[in-house]
Amino acid sequence: MSSHLPANRRRSSRAIVRFIAASAALGLVAVGMSTPALAIASVFGADAVNIAKTLPASLANVELQSPSTLYGKLNGQDVAFATFYEKNRIPLTADQMPELAKNAVVSIEDPRFYDHGGVDFAAVARAVLQNQSSGSTQSGASTITMQLVRNLRIEAAEWENDESAINEAREESASRKLLEMRYAIGLEQNYSKEQILTSYLNYASFGGNVYGIGAAAQYYYGKNAADLTLPEAAQLVSVFPSPNAYRVDAPENLDRAKARRDLVLNRMVEHGYIDQATADAAIATPIEPHITQQPRGCEAATHNASYFCDYVVNLIRNDSAYGDTPEERTALLRRGGLQIHTSIDLGLQDDTQAAIDKNINRNDKIGAATTVLQIGTSNVLAMAQNRTFSQTDDAQGDNSRTAINYSTTKDEGGSSGFQPGSTYKVFTLLDWLKQGHSLNERLNAPAPTTLRQKDFADRCKPGGYVGTWQLDNAVSNMPSSFDVRYATKNSVNTGFAAMAQQLDLCDIKDTAVSFGITKSANGEELDHVPTSIIGGSANTLAPIQVAGAYAGISNDGTYCTPKAILSVVDGNNGSERPTPTSQCSEAVTPTVARTATSALQGVFDKDGTAGQANPGDGSAVAGKTGSTDSYHQTWLVGYTTSTVQATWIGNTGTTSNKADLRYYRIKGVAGWNVRYTMWKDIQRGVHSRYPGAASFPAPDDTSLTFRSTDMPDVTGKTPEEAQQQLEDAGFQVAISPERRPSDSVPAGQVVATDPAGGGPADAGALVTIYLSSGKESAASTPADGSSASPSASAQ
Question: Which residue of 222, 284, 590, 615 shows the fewest CB atoms closer than 10 Å?
């Protein structure tokens, strides 16, 4: 006869036959098994209690998949700003679980819940007989505990991404039912009824990706579970036979959903939880859902913190402490119920984004980004840019939307970085001071100039470099001789090239590494060719790298890796997960760092390159401007004793039609000037929350700021002898084309120097040599500077 049945009926009949056979073998169809102890003994034998207490670890220890939440500070209080989940779930404790929901679900799903020991054997026997007589599965006799077992098995398999185990937990078979019975008895032996019912209402599906009655109350009715009314609670627990068929966010489901809800209310009357009048009033109440979507992911982050959120996500994806693979770490973030406390100041974040939006439009072809760090901790306080975070296809062709975080490195979810321009000069300055040079040493650095690349030492480049380097300064008509403090204040390219010629390019690179610039933002090894000293090589940096380096200078030369994650609490058990701490190390001595700061303060002087950006708020400020050839990229980084702000504005792409920010207008302002107004606007918000000291600490040792040495008297010597003696003493030499008459010094020999010899002079100063023209009668003889010109002597 079965051969004439439809295929699904034949499969159902075979399942019933197998279930009946297994049930008979286990004695499930026997009558009189009214007590849990007798039932267990009848089914599983004399050692039933011990067997029941032994649960598989995968079931007993399965973790509840629940959302992870990112927290920041707002006016000193922890505030959630982003949530991640696969299953929208708000776990509730037993005390938080509404009695209305518990009573309703017991009434409709398992009226004998408080009487049986995990399996309602009378119901099983009744179900077997009903199904046998009807020829189909009319009743499954699953208790709440058995349904919880099923949900736990599915949840455990999902953690392992085991599709076969998921399917096995869902299959309609007698073997699955018997396994659920075994495990249900085990649960009842190990947990209280209250714990089981609480877990059931937390694990159960309520349609779509809504799990647990806490999230269901929020999603379907926009309220906490504790505030559910009787008809709302009855409606929610009525969905369990088929959650997607009864979910009330689909209008076509409302009629059958109401019928099912009313059945629950009548069952509550039947089992004594409410009276008929109360049920009638609830039945008369229409179903009126208030669908409230639970935002998730960085796109939904509040307080303009989407890019910082993405930075945190990528830190977790890159950290083996959260799993063996990036996929496992992402799954943990979406399932693990992590409470991630971050460093962000949400109020400052809002202010920073507002300042960016004030100065540049989000759909401008030019990009802009800012990172603010705290000195000492290197905590990331703010991270913003002139784009709206988007990971959808809608972002294609829309300048206002992108998933690329301009503030971070490529492996942290960011861009490939941008040429740093003159912000990179700080590493030459720091290495200069590390090697014992001082700020008052004079540099012979005319512009424009042609430099031989072989004159730049590099211990990491055997054989050195070949060819020449054509170099000019951004501003014309600069003096050809000046000290290091002047070169820093005015960002003189030729001055820093002159410094680098007295250093080693590999040492300069190592100084950058010690301040956290271990690689380019795109992941490439740092370049250390001659042009790198002014930020003009293949090196690219992100604002967070630049901010971190300058924070190290303000921190007395101790560099600390930027930190965004302060602590991570496991939401399932309240334990705190190990969190990597900021790694700190001394990059330079406090004296070197403080001396560098004294020079970098000049950048924010009224006549310095960043003078117009100085907020004049009472906090001492130091830092550096930066720009590249044709002003494709512009930078401004400044720090106080409490914070550092690195701001970049420039071209985001690599196309040949990049905009020259000297001529490109941004909200009516020349593009190369926007960095000043934007930095200043952001800094006002920073200062209001993190004011810096009125002055920076002075270096204990002033030898790097000002250093003198005895200068030999070379009067009467030949130019060659004088130059050699002065250079051996550490001075730079230039021979003036001007000849001076002398009755005592023969023509062609040294008649005077500036400064004069025989006394103290600035260490490393430029000494100008004047040659004698002989007696007064020869004074009108024109100078022959062919072999004594500044350019020749400089080489």
Answer: 284
Residue-wise over 195-228: b if at least 16 C-beta within 10 A, else e?
ebbbbbbbbbbbbeebbbbbbbbbbbbeeebeeb
The CA-atom distances, in angstroms, between 476 and each of 12, 261, 446, 473, 479 are 91, 83, 10, 6, 9
The sheet with strand 338-345 has its strands ordered as: 77-84, 68-74, 338-345, 565-570, 576-577
Q: Alpha-carbon Rg of the chain, whole angstroms?
A: 39
- In sequence order, which residues have a C-beta less than 8 Å from that of residue 173 and are 6 or more positions away? 15, 18
Q: Could you check whether the bond before residue 580 is cis, i.e. omega within 30 degrees of 0?
A: no
DSSP H/E element including 689: helix 674-689
Report pLDDT digits (tens) over 556-593: 999 999 999 999 998 777 889 988 889 999 999 999 99
Out of 109-123, 553-567, 679-693, least confident range: 109-123
> If we measure between CA atoms, which residue out of 706, 637, 731 comes closest to residue 678?
637
Would you place residue 16 in the very low, low, confident or very high pLDDT band (cuts 50, 70, 90)?
A: very low
Can you tell me the mean pLDDT for 393-422? 86
Positive/negative CA dihedral, 553, 554, 555, 556: positive
Dihedral of the alpha carbons of 177, 179, 183, 185, in degrees to the nearest 10:
60
Q: Are 124 and 24 in contact (CB under 8 A)?
A: no
Q: Give residue 211's Cα distance to chain centre.
A: 29
Q: Which of 458, 503, 504, 511 is nearest to 484 (CA)?
A: 503
- Indicate the pLDDT class of residue 778, thresholds 50, 70 and 90: very low
Q: Which two tokens stand for residue 732?
A: 């730079």
Looking at the predicted structure, is the pLDDT value of residue 55 above 70? Answer: no
Task: Give the count of beta carbons closer than 10 Å to the beta carbon of residue 184.
Answer: 26
Instruction: Kindly report the average pLDDT of the chain as a whole number.
Output: 87
Task: Give the DSSP H/E element, type plus range, for residue 70.
Answer: strand 68-74
| DSSP calls for 442-471 | EEE--SSEEEEGGGSB-TTSTT---SEEEE
Full 3-state SS string of 603-657: HHCCCCCCHHHCCCCCCCCEEEEEECHHHCEEEEEEECCCEEEEEEEEECCCCCC
State the pLDDT confidence band at 131, using cuts at 50, 70 and 90: low
CA atoms within a 13 Å half-sphere pointing along the CA-CB vector of 30: 16
Query: How many whole angstroms separate alpha carbon 482 and alpha carbon 431?
Result: 19
Q: CA geometry: angle at 549 spanning 630 and 470, to 5°?
A: 30
Q: What pLDDT shows up at residue 273?
A: 97
Is a pLDDT exceeding 90 seen at residue 794?
Answer: no
Question: For residue 784, which phi and psi values (nearest 5 degrees)?
Answer: -105, 95
**Structure confidence at residue 14 as a pLDDT band (50, 70, 90):** very low
Q: How far apart are the first and last CA of the chain?
A: 107
Per DSSP bridges, beta strands 449-452 and 468-471 are: antiparallel
- Would you state the pLDDT for residue 244? 92
**Which residues lie below 8 Å from residue 164, measured CB to CB, with a gap of 6+?**
none
143-178 tens-digit pLDDT: 999 999 999 999 888 888 889 988 988 888 878 888
CB of 355 within 8 A of CB of 678? Answer: yes
Q: Phi and psi (nearest 5°) for 452?
A: -85, 125
Q: For residues 248 and 219, is the Cβ–Cβ distance under 8 A?
A: no
- Amino acid of residue 118: G
Q: What is the rounded distance in angstroms from the CA atom of residue 364 to the CA atom of residue 681? A: 19
CB atoms within 10 A of CB 34: 11
Please enumerate in sequence order all residues whose Cβ is within 8 A of that of 522, keeping only pairs 6 or more positions apart, or say none.
409, 410, 416, 417, 540
User: Are 66 and 91 contacting, i.e. CB atoms less than 8 angstroms apart?
Assistant: yes
Band of residue 670 on the pLDDT scale cut at 50, 70, 90: very high
Distance CA 222, CA 224 (A): 7
